[in-house]
Amino acid sequence: MSKLSRRHFIRRSAASGALASIPVLKIWSATGITPLAKKGPARRALSLDRDWLVSRTKSSSAGEPELKASATSSVTLPHCVTPLSWQKWDPASWEDVWTYRRDFEIPPEFKGLRLFLYLQRAMVAATPTVNGHALPRHLGGFLPFDYEITHLVREKTNTLSIAVDSRWANVPPAGSPKGPSSIDYLLPGGISGSVELRAVPHVFIKEVFAKPVDVLTKDRRLEVTCSIDCEQTMPAAIRLVATLRDGSRDIAHASKNFSLAQKNQDVSLTVDELKNVMLWDVEKPHLYDLVVTLFLDGSPLHTCETRIGFREARFELDGFFLNGKRLQLFGLNRHELYPYVGFAAPDRVLRRDAEYLRRDLNCNIVRCSHYPQSKAFLDACDELGLLVWEEIPGWQYIGDKSWQDIALQNVEDMIRRDRNHPSIVIWGVRINESPNDPNLYRRTREIAKSLDDSRPTSGSMTPSSTKDWRESWKEDVFAFDDYHAAPDGSVGIDAPLPGVPYMIAEAVGQYDYGTSKSFNRKYRKAGNPTEQMQQALLHAQAHSKGAASSHCAGVIAWCAFDYASLMNAYATVKCPGIVDTFRIPKLGASFYLAQIDPRVRPVIEPSFYWDFGPRTPAGPGKRAAIFSNCDRLDIFIDGKFHATVLPDAKNLPNIKYPPFFVDLSVAGAGKPELRIDGYLGSRLLLSRSFSSDNTTDQLSLHSDNTELQADGSDATRVAFGTVDRFGAPRPFAEGEVSLQLKGPGLIVGDNPFHLADSGGVGAIWIKSLPNRTGRIVLTASHSSLGRNSLSITVRRSPV
Questions:
Q1: Neighbouring-strand partners of residue 99
Q2: Cα dihedral angle (579, 582, 583, 589), rounded to 10 degrees?
Q3: CATH topology (fold) of 328-593
Q4: Tens digit of each residue's pLDDT (9 = 90 or more) over 2-19
Q5: Which residues contact 414 (CB under 8 A, 6 or more apart)?
Q6: What are the helix and strand counts (H, E) for the chain?
Q7: How far is it, in rounded angstroms, from Cα 268 to Cα 255?
């Protein structure tokens, strides 16, 4: 076992009544091990996500965490320790120690098996206690950890408590003496993932790493490394069988016999003869299942499954190559913070971000800034063909030795958890935008290469961290945060550095391109409309200039979604996203929305509001930008032809679908109507209309999903806002939206919701209740916009 392993093994004797007193199958016999699962491989888990009592911690006389008497209602994981709005987050509301407590019983089928307590993630430190036995404290809020508790549990009722320390601590990304304002994202506390009791045989497959090799040649193969865990060494022969499956079809096998000379050891085998495998690609992300089974005396003892894809991803001096073809990287950075719940979003909501980035914003890569993100999100990236840069927690600050030891552990935990994801093409093993630390980053890179030598390493560099980079830079791909302005005030993108693979890790953001050299509070939906209109164009400039050199692999711009921060924020919401915190697109998204083949989906997205209200009296102006994938646009005002415009390929030559510019200096007194017709050749592809008459405005209401599962955690977003009679967004609406829900669900969010603070739009999430099925009806009401309703069906969760 690696000295950095995060698994905690508990070897103490249990108190009276522990499970050890229950008759169990012995693991030794005269001929070796007695099979524990003659009926099939042991693969069992008990979800512990429901029925937690949560409270701020006080200590008993024995020093064990206890719940306050006021904690009477139960919660379902994932969970944030304090109620949050979508803005005005206060770190003091969560910076404390919180106790989660629940009872559980061991299922009869778990008897005779080893038991592990598994936690997906808890912010920011966690100390579980099982039946009064405190387990080692875990530090770090973004990655999973587990403990063997076989000898701590009882036959009947067991009590599990978890003390979650959500205070500012000496743990990445925190630790700076300046406190929460020193990093550019907030860290709301809680158990923000699932908790499980896992049961395995006394010998089991702890981990599988499946590495595709030479996938573009006839010698392609899958090198499989299995970590085997056993309570003690044994002379008996054991057999591993690896089966590669495409759906229900077995396509290849490999096997190996071995004996356990030590309690923990790695066993390698190779799956070859892979002549007809389909490659994983951004357009066709084909996935396979690898099933590895451990046999003893011909009986299956344990099975481990993982999902993989065959692809070759290389960063070279002349760009990024996927499966031998150059691919210009086109992406955005993503934070995983959500309104109302912080990091504690359920899987469906997490997956929706990946779908939005790939299918709506047309990105081919996302950077997980600035911490490892959820397994549900990464699984969706695998399925959708969305490439991933994943990196360790941090933001500029590097702490002391203890802090650095945790950062090193984060590298190992991240790569062990996620190295089978084909979507991940680069490991970020530097603290984001940190100063050079050659010794630390030599060690992070060594850990990464020892665990996965198939992917390059990187980390974002700033002008200050590029000093003496040839001597101190230790990575494979030079990734630069480029925020400088060109002499004409447009986005400036430096030429790639010579002799190294190069890409842009961040660009645009909230930088004030133009005369100022500072960061300003831009792109807030309730803010300056002129600034909002410029955001999409700046992103287009960044990607076009990044693609101008074949030596630049691409641009991952800052950023996808607004997020909670104390830096340069409005009411703790920082607004550099092209999409707001509710996952509702801003004008800045118009560029990304249009970057798709028109035969797949024709797009017309103005980068302006067709509005002549108090804050937009002059309308869009002389150089109004419209993003579209059409060949030409015909513009009509009040039904009369106004102009024909073509894409500006001259000034933005390196993007697929450049913007169109048109003079829309129009008098708004008559409340004119705008129509835009988009053509591909001579064929009309799409026509969109926009009304400036706000007397016909309506209240829109939309849910991402029409069905939920009754597990008490599943949720879907419901967005609302003011739209004109054609469905186009109206800016700066005011008043309240009141929400009424009937049926088996809960509203997660502000009710009533004040539109003025958010630029006329908003969202809440509808969450299911445990074991409650039926039909949810949500009704939204506004004093001048009227009412709107939708329904969601809640079905029983699959077993």
A1: 55, 163
A2: -20
A3: TIM Barrel (3.20.20)
A4: 433 444 443 333 333 333
A5: 143, 372, 390, 392, 427
A6: 7, 51
A7: 10
Above 60 in pLDDT, residue 186?
yes
Q: Is the Cβ–Cβ distance between 693 and 651 less than 8 Å? A: no
d(CA 474, CA 613): 54
| CATH 2.40.128.20 at 696-795, yes or no | no
Q: How far apart are CA 145 and CA 442, in angstroms?
A: 25
Alpha helix segments (H runs only) across 701-753: none
Mean pLDDT of 605-629: 91
Other C-beta atoms closer than 10 Å to the C-beta of 233 total 11
Domain coordinates of the chain in residue numbers?
8-200, 203-308, 328-593, 621-685, 696-795
Rounded Cα gap, residues 395 and 435, in angstroms: 11
Q: Is the Cβ–Cβ distance between 504 and 479 less than 8 Å?
A: yes
Are 537 and 591 within 8 A, CB to CB?
A: yes
CATH topology of domain 203-308: Immunoglobulin-like (2.60.40)
Q: Which residue has the tokens 């990187």?
A: 458
Q: Return d(Cα 552, Cα 653) in angstroms, integer.
A: 16
For the segment 269-281, what is each residue's pLDDT rounded down to a tens digit?
999 999 889 999 9
Q: Band of the pLDDT at 516, cuts 50, 70, 90?
A: low
Place of tokens 């390698």: 268
> Do 337 and 343 touch, CB atoms closer than 8 A?
yes
Query: Helical H runs in 496-554?
Result: 529-546
Pairing label, strands 786-795, 707-709: parallel
Beta bridge partners of residue 103, listed in sequence order:
159
What is the C-alpha separation between 283 and 289, in angstroms, rounded?
A: 19
Please report, to the nearest 10 degrees, the dihedral formed by the alpha carbons of residues 396, 401, 407, 410 taken in order.
-170
With CA atoms as reference, report the closest residue to 461 among 500, 425, 422, 487: 500
At the fourth CATH level, the homologous superfamily of domain 8-200 is Galactose-binding domain-like (2.60.120.260)
The beta strand positions in 558-681, using DSSP E, are 563-564, 573-574, 604-606, 621-628, 632-637, 640-645, 660-664, 673-680
CA distances in angstroms from 172 to 64, 394, 442, listed in the order given: 27, 5, 18
Tokens of 424: 């991940």
* DSSP label at residue 360: I
Element (H, E) at 291: strand 288-296
Of 567, 448, 445, which Cα lies nearest the Cα of 509? 567
